[in-house]
Amino acid sequence: MLQAFLRYTEATGTAGHLTSLRRVFSSGEALPTGAVRSFTDFLGDRTGLINLYGPTEAAVDVSHFDCAGLDAHRLSPIGRPIDNIRLYVLTKAGTEVPVGTPGELHIAGTGLARGYLGAEELTKEQFQPDTVAGSGRMYRTGDLVRRLDSGDIEYLGRRDAQ
Question: In the record, which residues are listed under signal peptide (predicted)?
């Protein structure tokens, strides 16, 4: 939808009329570098662009990143967890990886779903004990990410063909 919005504002020349627009939240798919560049070109610094990330299994949006000042030639990070959510970057063995090292994103906290209705085996496979915090559960997203020096998390892709 963000890309459709940007194409529309470019085609109609209406970006200058959006003076009351203060913030746009992008969620639901990876935020392409071209969209960040277009957004900045058309709406400038007066309108904030926030990249949100999260799967349906965990309260839909679990992280946020303010794209202000982002190098528009690289992917927008998915950022940091929202309140009451923990994000872990783990190896296949379940240990945390060093900063900058790719791993699988796991989500824990109060926004986590109970599991998949009528799919006990899949629930057991994807929702596992939170071994990092030592209590509760965490969800294996299947998303490959890495933690940046800033503490933000950068999305790299999928571990499967989903």
Answer: none
Domain chopping of the chain, boundaries: 2-158
Query: Beta partners for 131?
Result: none
Residue 107 DSSP one-character state: E
Q: Per residue in 5-43, pLDDT tens?
A: 888 888 888 877 888 889 999 998 888 888 888 888 888
Strand 63-66's sheet: what is its strand order? 23-26, 48-53, 63-66, 80-81
Three-class secondary structure assignment of 86-100: EEEEECCCCCECCCC
Residue type at 87? L
CATH fold of 2-158, please?
A: Rossmann fold (3.40.50)
Distance CA(26)–CA(1), nearest Å, equals: 8
* Interatomic CA distance for residues 159 and 86, integer angstroms: 20
- Give residue-wise pLDDT tens across range 36-51: 888 888 887 788 999 9
Tokens matching residue 55:
């799967």
Its pTM stands at 0.88
